[in-house]
Amino acid sequence: MDKSPFSYKGLLIGTLLSLAIGLLAPYGIVFNYYWIGFNPSSPGALFFFFVLTFVVNTIVGLLNRRFELAKADLVLIYCMLLMAVTVPTWGLVFFLIGTLVYPFYYGTPENNYAELFYDFIPAWMVPQDFQAIKDYYEGLPQGAAIPWAVWVEPMGWWLSLMIAMRFMLICMSAILHRQWSVHERLTYPMVQLPQNMIEKSDDARIAPFFKNKFMWLGFLVPFTLLTLNALNHYWPIVPQYSPNGRFSLFDNTLHLPIALNLAWVGFFYLVNLEITFSIWFFYVLSKIQEGVFNIIGIASTEKLSAYEYSQPADLTHQATGAVIVLVVFGLWGARGHLKEVAQKIWDPQGGVDDSEELLRYRTAFWGFFASLLYTAAWLWRSGVPIVVLPVLLIVSLIFFILVARVVAAGGVATARSPIVPAYFIISGLGTSILGAKGLVALNFTFIWQGESRTSPMVAASNSLKVAEMIPGSKTRLFWGLMLALVLSLCAAVFMTLKLAYTYGAVNLSLINWAGAHGWPYIGPTILNMPEANMRGWLFKGIGAAVEGFLLWAQQRWFWWPFHPIGFAIAVGWLTSQIWFSALIAWICKGIIVRYGGVGLFQNLKPFFLGLILGEVVVSGIWGIIYPLTAEKGRWLTNM
Question: Whole-structure pTM over 0.90, yes or no?
């Protein structure tokens, strides 16, 4: 067996930091000290890594170079941090616990949750002690102990599903990595900052990136502006930086939100101009389409889930059709690579060399297949009808691939699927095929499918790109990713339960709110039992046709300015938060490239990386100061 380039020292440090993220992330969010785990830009991971590379490793190197972390260990630690931040809060754990207990505490005679839900929830999936659920929301009486025992069985089942699913997505990332990185040569803009923080010669004390004046100039911009906001939290006389607003259109019947995030401007500077142009262009176009539909009175009245509240159903279905075509087209383009993967399954010694992949292709395939089977069996046992199970799994995998490709490979700051798979089924197939039991089971899938923006497949894809810096076997990196995932997940469950039982979840807004994404919507669905929405299929077809044309035009005409990714993610609340930053980055980069060429673009890249790092560091520093000086803080960035 080849010697691993990743040492046990790096693995140990990554393990401790992953455990710290799992414990600290829920605590920081409920008191508004800092936000970790909301977007794939991963500011929490970047802050820990900045402290490690710029502060700790530099000091250790000055004292004794022998104890300095090597490049391979820094890569390992960063990849583990990326994986650790995907689960502790909004990405999984808050939704996991909140969804399990919400209908029991908030059930009333008016909403009739008891009659609608209780008979269809398997006992092994949720805590069986109502007093323990009540204490979770209201806090324990003085001196009472946390009832850990009531959580052992349900949490054991749920954690087994979450780990299996995340292993499945890591395997899928290992299979697709070479296609995206080598064959398609996608750019992975989000890895450029950690790569610059790592890269240095053997005799250098510090990475050249940290000596770049343009980087520190960019760093100071968000650091200064967001420090004003932090100071305003203590002294309201200090002026605030608030670059948010909105445009009103169609006689104030439609609003176009404006939200400028300097870190996202930095990320978008690294992205292809066609992508940034298409993001803001198609978002504005979709809002115009929405306004026109409202004015002429043809807007859909279909009600979907909380995740689709920011746009009408027609646009949701249109984007869904586009997403399916984008992903299927990408997989069709990867058929040559997938054929090579298939050959390795039957002939491990022949064909393409997979010795430096995260997992051997044969291992990745069987790991994917086994975890997919376990996931299917688990979901069937939970009540998902076997007839819709293949649809649920296929659509979910399509959406996971979408987010990974758009965010990790395309460099989009944040994204998620236009519709959650549960409502793809409810709207597309109708409820008669599901029944009340199937609808309740689908509601539990919100736990793992709702916030797909923090998908572990994004973290794995970015990790594999960073790991290309290190030749050799990646087996220890795989185990590092799995260790980071499991430790962060378990630590976050422990801390979330401890916080809720100590302070009462009703007093911790995000923990309290997390369970409300599904149950209030699935109740009326059970009462009404709507049939399949044919209008939705029409707009899926329209979206698929437009996306197909965009893909065809991109392949045929080199001058074609519209990128298919822009149309696929044109709708949704997340796009409303990033489109204006994409517009600003597109203008800046366009001017720089037009008048300064590639040379000026490269020279100014550290400035835009500094915008990202400055926002990360200022939030991290104030996240340390807040707990020492204030009962509650003020979050400084939503990156």
Answer: yes
